[in-house]
Amino acid sequence: MIKIENEALFKSKLVSGISIFAGSGFSVLPSPSGVTLPTGSELSSEVIKKFKLPEMSSNDGLDYVSEFCAENEYQRFLREKFTVNDYNPLYDKLNNISLKSFVTTNIDNIIQLVADNSHRYYIKNIRKEGACSNRPSELVYIPLHGDVLDDSSRLYFGKFELSRVRDDNSDLFDAMCGYLATAPILFWGYSFNDGGVLSVVAKLIEKNHNDIWIQVLHGDNKSKRLYQAKGCNIIEADTKELLEWIGQNCA
Questions:
Q1: What single DSSP character describes residue 100?
Q2: Distance between CA atoms of 223 and 227, rounded to whole angstroms?
Q3: CB 45 within 8 A of CB 61
Q4: Long-range contacts from 8-13, C-beta under 8 angstroms, 24+ separation
Q5: Is 98 helix (H, G, I), strand (E, B) or coil?
Q6: Which residues, at least 6 apart from 202, have a Cβ–Cβ distance to it below 8 Å?
Q7: pLDDT tens-digit profile, the chain (251 residues)
Q8: Checking DSSP bridges between strand 233-236 and strand 138-143, what pairing results, if any?
């Protein structure tokens, strides 16, 4: 069962305006046909097979394995794998809330599809289109690790690539800091393992922890204790439960 600390306050923030910082745990729901995006270990196994890396193991981690792939072919492979054509309709519940910005380390296009089917929002990709115009219908989109729909956008998955992503995309990271500092934040499906992002996140938590909600999975007591100690509000739920709760509680 879903548990939300300061639930009434959280609901009011969803109505008045909130930003979402999404990680891989956000994009896990299957499409109506049952298709899901691959997990890290699944993708590692597929990469090892496709790029003929028999000396590797999926246990090595995708960030390590991907360093041994032919660059252009690997980028094409990632775009094919993470370009979504159909998505779970539960994601449309995001249209029930007031979204200020959507920051993500994911490279898939689920949020773009949601906006395409929305009468409330249109996507403003900061990387491609520059500064926003602050219209209520404008959803600021900041893809920190790349965007499958933008052919000029590099997709960051390798160990060395991820170590320099903040330097390569300094404008995006600066924009992220600015937008996330102006509204309450919901961290959704994010594991906080990305060194390039974590220093920024730590500053946001330190500065504005009372207005931050962090979604953790049931039983993840380690993360729960850590972010409670930082003063953040905890949501114990999986992605399906949280979207269903939004649908039931936000008109």
A1: E
A2: 6
A3: no
A4: 9/233, 10/213, 10/233, 10/235, 11/249, 11/250, 13/184, 13/211, 13/213
A5: coil
A6: none
A7: 999 999 999 999 999 999 999 999 999 999 999 999 998 889 999 999 999 998 888 888 888 888 899 999 999 999 999 999 999 999 999 999 999 999 999 999 999 999 999 988 999 988 777 666 677 789 999 999 999 999 989 998 776 677 778 888 888 888 888 888 889 999 999 887 776 677 777 888 887 777 999 999 999 999 999 999 989 999 999 999 999 999 999 98
A8: unpaired
**Looking at the DSSP assignment, which residues form a beta bridge with residue 140?**
101, 124
Q: What is the DSSP string of 15-54?
A: HH-EEEEE-GGGG-PPPTT---PPPHHHHHHHHHHHTT-T
- Amino acid, res. 61: G
Question: Torsions phi, psi of 52, nearest 5?
Answer: 55, 65
Long-range contacts of 50-56 (CB under 8 A, 24+ apart): 50/77
User: E strands along the chain, which residues?
Assistant: 3-4, 18-22, 99-104, 122-125, 138-143, 185-188, 212-216, 233-236
What 3-state DSSP class applies to 14? helix
Question: What global pTM score does this model have?
Answer: 0.92
User: Could you tell me if 45 and 104 are in contact, meaning their C-beta atoms sit under 8 angstroms apart?
Assistant: no
Residue type at position 234: I
